[in-house]
Amino acid sequence: MTVGFRSAKNNAASNASTLTNTMPAGVADGDALLLALSMRGGTGSGCMIEPVVVCAATSGGGSVSHKRIVSAQNGAYLYRSNYEDAQVAVVRTSDFVNTTDITVGTNPAWLFLSPDEANIYCFNMYGSSVSVIRTSDKTVVQTISLSEHPYRDAAMTPDGAYLLCGHVTTGLTSLIRTSDGTVTYQPNVGSSPSGVVASPDSQYFYTSPRSASLYGISRVKVSDGTVTQFTGGSASGTAAGVAISSDGAYVYTASSGRVQKWDTSTLAFHSYVVPRIEVVTAMALSPDDSTIFVGYIDALTAKISTAGSMSVDSTSFQPLYAMNFLFTPTGDYVWARSAYGGQGSVRVKVSDGSSRGRATWATDSFCWNNSSGSLLYANTNGARGIMKIETTDEGVWWRVGRSDGDATTLAQELFWRRALSEPASYTITFNASIYASSETAAFTTAAAHFPTSQEWSQQINSSSTTISAAALGTWSSTDGYDVFFGGTAYQTTTTPPTNYTEPANGDSQTTGTSSGASTEVAYRALTGVTTVGALTATAVNAAINVGHHIFLTDGGLFSLAFTLPDLQIDKGTQADTSGSTTLVSGNTETIEMSNGVTPAGVTIQFDPTSVTTGNSTTITVAVDNTATEGDSNIEIIATAPSMVTSKPVKVKKRNAPTPVRVPPFPFNGGI
């Protein structure tokens, strides 16, 4: 294939905390971009590439809590608790402006949105109260007093009728009736809970104890506040979460050393597994109830199958030290944030655990703003505010891999994204002042598949060295691109490995500095190379060497459009619109069609369910008589191997018109 390969070299930042990364000339939408970043004097953890996200500046900062950000009013506004300022910031999503700050109680922590999105309940941690915010006019309409400081673990029944919150120091909880703000009961569950969930039928709450001396599950009955203890199980340290299956049949808890399964019909212990022995930091159950992810202090994430007596799939998934999990609406992926700022937020594929990470500032909570799972909002620690993340492959720099270093060795991180309205440069911000350099390479014809990386690191101190990289296996020039990225230091020059060439208009021969800043190199395999062996690069005066060997396959970029983006449908009827796909660049692919969450009484069908790029599908939207009258935006999702995109169809549900009865013509007996 004919491949355009261009690069831009960005020389070392001399013991600085930022580096300007210039894009290659002539980058077009759909190009594949690879950014290699080499650093000396640190691992590079905590780097952030901007502008990748949009940040809404909100007043205040504060400590970590579970739900400090919620999306409300059909995604039109975001609400963010400002712990230090006794306020809740309101951000308009259309232009990302902080429109107002609502004064609440002392140290507002986490937020709960009622199912009808009419009210937000703000728990004021050291104000011993709950502020009720009416979303229609963004005012506090009630303050509910509590007997103790509320803690971060709370839940709302699915019908929105009750809240249960734990308290900081005791086993007492507060059961709050939301219709009038009354604390109806204060059930004692034995210890400050480490997790609270509500049953799908809104009849019960389940809690797990935070105390390491207690274990098991407490069930709180909503109607009278009575507490029932589950039997069996095993004490295994401080618990860190509780989850319930979608049918309410099983409850899961996680603590040091084990994940336990409880049967809600028998109120008894069912089974357990021991993925790790480290302290548990977080857990989450997938929407289809099949998989549990568990985070640990200073350890990788574990993945567990819930089938039968449960089994451990793996204990080596990213991220390290996971603190929060958020599944996409479809359940295909889970977003996890690490307690380590350098780990950032990682998107993990549920089926196989593969991850696409991105470097970012530390976040403490997530929320979705549409049903397709393509638009994610993350609340950042401190006063930085809210980050908007386009989670499709066009919207983010994904971390492909990293070779770690230390104060005396070089580290390298490699990032990938598909070009879309690229700026002339990006600013890379580090968590400390270090020596660094970067190189960005652009590939034409939409090399859009996520790349495979073989990474390595090597410390060599001599005037002439050879750097060998592991092979990726058999590769044909018709399959895609094979690229070698390397980093060297101390006035290093390099020559291309055998069968590899520098990119056109590249400057990977640029000499580094004697102070120890790195020099980045990038080479692409020649068209004639059909089998990739170990790569060898010769360097002069090389002190430190790291690198990545990258393999990309060819993909395509497409757009999605509708003939009728707005549908007016009477109850009991249906309407059609056509969803057309258009090839923007690259190759045609098979595109699978699906939809996001639909309102009650609305169903969607696709004919056909998959199309080849350039073709169309008929989308049939049916509204039955149980649907609620009004407007809804339904995400239509197009998924191809190279990219995922979505667009909303607006459905206006109407009551069927009442037939007009015409009386019969009167008969007067005349002619």
Secondary-structure content class: mainly beta
**Count of distinct strands:** 55
| Percentage beta strand | over 45%
Question: What's the helix count?
Answer: 0
How far the N terminus sits from the C terminus, by CA atoms, comes to 89 Å
- Outline the biggest β-sheet: 6 strands, antiparallel
Helical fraction equals under 10%
What is the approximate shape? globular
Q: Nearest-angstrom radius of gyration? A: 28 Å
Rounded mean pLDDT is 74
Sequence-ordered SSE layout with sheet pairings:
Layout: E1 5-22, E2 32-40, E3 48-50, E4 54-56, E5 69-72, E6 77-82, E7 87-92, E8 97-103, E9 108-113, E10 119-124, E11 129-134, E12 139-145, E13 150-156, E14 162-167, E15 173-177, E16 182-185, E17 193-198, E18 204-209, E19 218-221, E20 227-229, E21 239-244, E22 250-255, E23 258-263, E24 268-273, E25 280-285, E26 291-296, E27 299-305, E28 311-317, E29 322-327, E30 333-338, E31 345-349, E32 355-358, E33 363-368, E34 375-380, E35 386-390, E36 398-403, E37 410-418, E38 425-443, E39 452-459, E40 464-469, E41 480-489, E42 493-495, E43 500-501, E44 518-525, E45 535-540, E46 544-553, E47 556-562, E48 566-570, E49 573-586, E50 590-595, E51 602-607, E52 610-612, E53 616-623, E54 630-639, E55 644-654
Parallel strand pairs: 48-55
Antiparallel strand pairs: 1-38, 2-37, 2-38, 3-38, 4-35, 5-6, 6-7, 7-8, 9-10, 10-11, 11-12, 13-14, 14-15, 15-16, 17-18, 18-19, 19-20, 21-22, 22-23, 23-24, 25-26, 26-27, 27-28, 29-30, 30-31, 31-32, 33-34, 34-35, 36-37, 39-46, 40-45, 41-44, 41-46, 42-45, 43-44, 47-49, 49-53, 50-52, 50-54, 51-53, ...
